[in-house]
Known about the structure:
- By secondary structure, the protein is of the alpha+beta class.
- It has five helices and 14 strands.
- The strands form three sheets. The chain has an eight-stranded antiparallel beta sheet with strand order 9-5-6-7-11-3-2-13, with helices on one face.
- A hairpin with a 5-residue loop joins strand 5 and strand 6.
- The radius of gyration is 17 Å and the shape is globular.
Amino acid sequence: MIALAAGFLFALLLGIFFNRRKPAEAVSGNSTSADSRDTAGQQDQISGKESGTDNAGNADAKKAELPEEIAAFAAGEFIGIEKVNDPTFAQKMLGDGVAIVPAEGKIYAPVDCTVEMVMDTKHAVGLRTAAGNGILIHVGIDTVNLQGKYFDVHVSDGQSLKKGDLIMEFDKDKIMAEGYDTSACLIFTEPVEGSHVDREAERTVKTGDRIAVITK
């Protein structure tokens, strides 16, 4: 019951975060959904810059198109989200996804993206891909209880990342020694409208190996 309650609370807080952009859209009269907005729009809201420019004040590149390849964000055992030992993830309360049982304590960007959220407890980050897909990377089960202990995040809100950039490091052995499962989940929290995810077969992966493709 505690695990289910915690999962519900986490899903509620995550929903509040991803929905907080909508009032700004209503004021501007933009009827486009958050799912279909491009990376430039996300950067504008975070930085407060005039629409149509990037962080350097240059003209935005065109939004990436589907299909969008998702790479392994850690080295280890690639598994379906259904096999994760937590009902919040296994039952897809936050959305469909995949998971990796990490072989080392490093998490990398799975795709070109923008950082939308770094949780205070450092164990999870929200990303917006170049094609507009919202994803969440969450390291460990119930590791929110560690309050950031053993985690070191190398990115910040609004930062642009290239596939393979280091996002965070964590002390896998110490986290396991305190009794926590270190499975790292990638959840497709806000897929582009009309898209679906084609997952690769479960196997041992290296960082950068293809694990899924988001396509129409």
